[in-house]
Amino acid sequence: MSIRKLDQKVIRNAASELANRDPTLGKVLEELGPPPLWKRPATFATFVRIVLEQQVSLDSARMTYERLSKAVQGSVVPKAIAKLGESDLRSLGFTRQNARYVSTLARDVLAGDFRIGSLPRLDDQTVREKITARLGLGDWTADVYLMMALLRPDVVPLGDLALIKGCEELFGKEFDRDSLASLAETWRPYRSVATRMIWQSYLDRRGRKFKT
Question: Which residue pairs, CB below 8 angstroms and at least 24 apart, start in 13-21?
């Protein structure tokens, strides 16, 4: 089975198609151009970053991750995390929950119960099931990993606050999970690209850039 992946060419073409369908996304494309690819490596370290981002701002999560990376000499791998343990992770700024989640994930990988290297070969739903079977890793974590590490083109993180707020600002109405899911149906098969366009607009209005 061939697994489709995003690259800059696919994003440009998809953004143009989405803009033709939806005047609101068309305005985003006209003002800001195609969104960045925004990719991360398909590794254990990326899962750690995403877990950190579950409960705090991206900037705060990045600072905690940088402290962790320094503590393990840049090698954010399961063996190093398992050696640190939960108490050392908390001393670096992890919450009690996130320290537990990341330590458990490291042990799962070392035990062979979670094979990160196999995920790129699996379809979206199977990847989601594998990820959400892990302690503390829910749909949002799976969505972000699918979108940014595996570069899947048709994923929408319905629980993402920046996506919800960005849609409310662009479309001028309130959204909840159900109404966002309904809107996202009109973006198929490029929901990941539409999400990037909305994130792009959200960040631009705040004078910010997303740092991978």
Answer: 14/153, 14/190, 14/193, 15/193, 15/197, 17/190, 18/187, 18/190, 18/193, 18/194, 18/197, 21/186
Query: Which amino acid, residue 16?
Result: S
Helix (H/G/I), strand (E/B), else coil: 174: coil
Measured CA to CA, the distance from residue 43 to residue 37 in angstroms comes to 17
Name the pLDDT band for 152 (thresholds 50, 70, 90). Answer: very high
Confidence label for 109 from pLDDT (cuts 50, 70 and 90) = very high
User: Under a CB-based contact definition with an 8 Å cutoff, are residues 104 and 135 in contact?
Assistant: yes
| Rounded (10°) angle between helices 44-53 and 96-110 | 160
Instruction: Say which DSSP state 149 is in.
Output: I
Question: What residue has token string 């490029």?
Answer: 190
C-alpha–C-alpha distance, residues 124 and 135, integer Å: 19
pLDDT at 209: 73
DSSP code for 119: G
CA 114 to chain CA mean position, Å: 19
pLDDT: which is higher, 212 or 29:
29
